[in-house]
Amino acid sequence: MTTFVARKGWVAGPRAMIVAVALLLGGCGGAVDRICHGAATGGKQFVSAVPLGAAVRWQHVKDSPAYGRFFLDHYQWMTPENELKMDALEPERGRFDFQTADAMVNWALAHGKHVHGHVLIWDSQLPNWLASSRPLDRASALRIMGTYIRTVLRHFRGRIGEWDVVNEAFQSDGSYKHNLWYKALGPDYIGDAFAIARATDPHVRLCYNDDGIELPGPHADAALALVKALRVRDLIDCVGFETHVSPPGPPQGAMAAELRRFAATGVDVLISELDVRLTRHESLDAQAKTYADVARACRSVRKCVRITTWGFTDASSWLGSAARGLPFNALCQPKPAWRALTTALATTTTTPR
Which residues are catalytic? Predict the structure, then answer.
């Protein structure tokens, strides 16, 4: 999740600073048990040229059956928004709690959906026992990281086939974030995490996920260099472009070129956390154009394998409902953004890939 830094009409950058505020705002737009209440469900699911996914919150599925049905009717992939993060899975050192995550993953699989695991190693949403600890020495950091990755991957073996191993490792200037892992292990912490994951489950697809790499620049260059180094060691299979933006968003051609630049290393690329934040002065039509441009950029690249929006209704967005960032409004009614997205991805549309 990402703090907004305005850059020529689009936004990106590390977002840990506002996660707490975002979680408080996410339910704006109506009581949780009313999310998607009365929205049309049960229709024929849109057949997309590129599979569509969405981030989902399990508490909303439990509290609002309509929210869960709406997701099932519109999306093929589910990314648990917070339920697979370290603070949720290992709230106390050595004590893992998989109850909520198991319920969520099993629900998605029972309904024929695929699950993308987010995220194993990040510098945010850490459990208190780790976030508030004294600086770790190398041996302790490797032991904590190794135990966590092995335990989680073994637990979900055969149920989650794709994981973000490391999330948001770089600053916007291309330098490494000096997070807890970096301070203990240096930049090698990324390769260490991927190596542990590969050794634990050679069949799971391993991804690096980042925001601010939609256009060329020092951030994207640093991420690309990382991907190339990991590819040499056969440790990475995919790269997630978060794409938290605002209108007009990254130009379609420039974003497609960046997707191709990463895909040329042999990895699959995916739009992993798409939303388009609006200010009071920006229109829904401008938002729709941005969604369409991102979709067309992905569709023009053969190895762009999925588009996931970070939520689907404004009633449950980390941005808060006032940002109106998602394809469906707070009542789960389609916005111009949904129509633009589905038009751009319609299987009857022919676009070279």
Answer: 168, 273
Give the range among 172-176, 288-292, 345-349 with minimum mean pLDDT.
345-349
279's tokens: 């200010």
As beta bridge partners, residue 209 has: 167, 240
Q: What is the gyration radius of the CA atoms in the chain, in angstroms?
A: 19
Confidence at residue 21, expressed as pLDDT on a 0 to 100 scale = 34
Strand 5-7 versus strand 10-12 pairing type: antiparallel
In one-letter notation, the amino acid at residue 335 is K
The CB-side HSE value for 114 (13 A sphere, CA atoms) comes to 12
Kindly report, residue by residue over 98-117, the tens digit of the pLDDT. 999 999 999 999 999 999 99
Q: What is the largest CA-CA distance in the chain?
A: 57
Beta bridge partners of 317: none
> pTM of the full predicted structure?
0.88
| Mean pLDDT, rounded, for 174-194 | 98
What's the rounded Cα separation, in Å, for the pair 37 and 18?
28
| SS3 label, residue 208 | strand
Own/partner long-range contacts of 94-99 (Cβ < 8 Å, ≥24 apart): 94/147, 96/151, 96/152, 96/155, 98/155
The C-alpha angle 61, 64, 67, rounded to 5 degrees, equals: 65
- Between the CA of residue 142 and those of 188, 196, 231, 338, what are the distances in Å? 11, 10, 22, 44
| CA dist., res. 295 & res. 308, Å (int) | 10
Instruction: Report whether 158 contacts 114 (CB < 8 A).
Output: no
Write down the H helix ranges in 112-217: 128-131, 138-155, 180-185, 188-200
244, 273, 284, 319, 320 from 1: Cα distances, Å: 9, 9, 23, 10, 13
pLDDT of residue 139: 97
Q: What is the mean pLDDT of the chain?
A: 90
